[in-house]
Design a protein that fits this description.
Radius of gyration: 20 Å
CATH topology of the largest domain: Jelly Rolls
Shape: globular
CATH architecture of the largest domain: Sandwich
Order of helices and strands: HEEEEEEEEEEEEEE
CATH class of the largest domain: Mainly Beta
Distance between the termini: 53 Å
Structural class: mainly beta
Helix content: under 10%
Strand content: 35-45%
Length: 258
Amino acid sequence: MASTYGEPKSGYSPDAIHFNPKGGEAVGYAFAQFLATILPAAQNFSAYPDDLFDATNNPMGNRLTNPLCLGTGGALGTGVTGSVATGMRAERSSGASSVVASKESRADGLGDYQVLTFTPAGTAEDMFYFRTTAANTSLTGAVAGDWFTARCKIETNNYAGFTGVSLLLSDQGAGSMDAYAMEPFNSGSANEKWSALARAGYLETPAFQITDAASNVRWRLEISFDANVAGTPIVKVGEVELRKVSDPRTLLNWSAPA
């Protein structure tokens, strides 16, 4: 509002006209605050432990068997100490930083959060994964052309060095496709750092069709940050899901050409 020509704030636009991710988030956040004054709060999604895949009784059910991140029977990979939810794994993909994995009971009663508390080390952009214990999840009963999506809930603290907290769904079949929720934005020189702001919400990948009837997919949360930025990055993860969904094109009255 202080700009004569309505230019975005410095650092919020690459060309003084279009928003970069930081600028888009700032405007979106302000707009969400306005909407909260005139609309009721949206109901949260909930991944319930009884809504699991069954080929006969629940073919659209969750393919991940521990949606509420309960237990401590998960796997510790490189650079990780502590406790990981049963059926899941935490590991360092690149860099020299470390993470302590812990469990936190959620105040809303929807199971646990997997808490990941990082100690940055070095000067690289480090990458960590929170994923299923087995890298691939088999889509038993699926056929080529079925649509799948992945989802989870996250919370982050206001660490200024995050460059991405992104959910990946990767088809491992022939002619495979990947889908990201919140993939990091590369400005051409480096991934953009997030504003120092605590966040909470759901990540959900765009749905896509698998191409192989015997397909496996990978469900993986990728957490990246600039290890040269001082502080303690913290990410909480819960309500993990991987499920078949209806063809989203039907919402647009789309049909295959004759």
